[in-house]
TrEMBL record:
Pfam families: Oxidored_q3. The keyword Endoplasmic reticulum does not apply. It comes from Acinetobacter lanii. It is found in: Cell membrane. Its EC number is 7.1.1.-. The chain crosses the membrane at residues 6-21, 28-50, 56-76, 88-112, 141-163. NCBIfam families: PRK06638.1-1. InterPro entries: NADH_UbQ/plastoQ_OxRdtase_su6, Nuo/plastoQ_OxRdtase_6_NuoJ. GO terms for cellular component: plasma membrane. The keyword NAD applies. It is a multi-pass membrane protein. Belongs to the complex I subunit 6 family. This is NADH-quinone oxidoreductase subunit J. The gene is nuoJ.
Amino acid sequence: MMWPFYLMALVAIVSTIRVVTNANPVHALLSLIISLLAVAGMFMIVGAPFAGALEIIVYAGAIMVLFVFVVMMLNLGQDTVEQERKWLTSSAWAYPALMSFLMGLTLVWSFGSDFNHLTAPLMGQEVIGPKAVGYTLFTKYLLLVEIAAMLLLGALVAAYHLGKREPSAEEEKNNG
């Protein structure tokens, strides 16, 4: 009964290795998305669907879309036209097709059988929902949540001040 977890772990490990070893930034980001989706699947298999959903929404969704947009906006030069032609070969699609097949196989097995994630997680533990996460965060770990909030606020203020552009003398002269 543990093979879906190990299969998702294998997909995550192989995808993470491809992130580090891939020279093409777009392929590396796509491998990172596959890795994050596999980790979300592992969370769901062990009985933490809330953590899995957060993994998909926050990491695989929002942050990875931001990374892909940044890479796409970079001016990579004329070499990218020839490289895009190479992406259309069948060998370039072998890895994504294999990883998608493995994750799809795990999902079909999990949802197609009489196995129910919400009442009987695969690893034999109880399901951890949003209520339990919120209760634990704001009772037992309240101080850590407050410290994390202050660190994030400090990072936001620092990013604003570091990114703020000082007007040049000519702009000040034209505006004032």
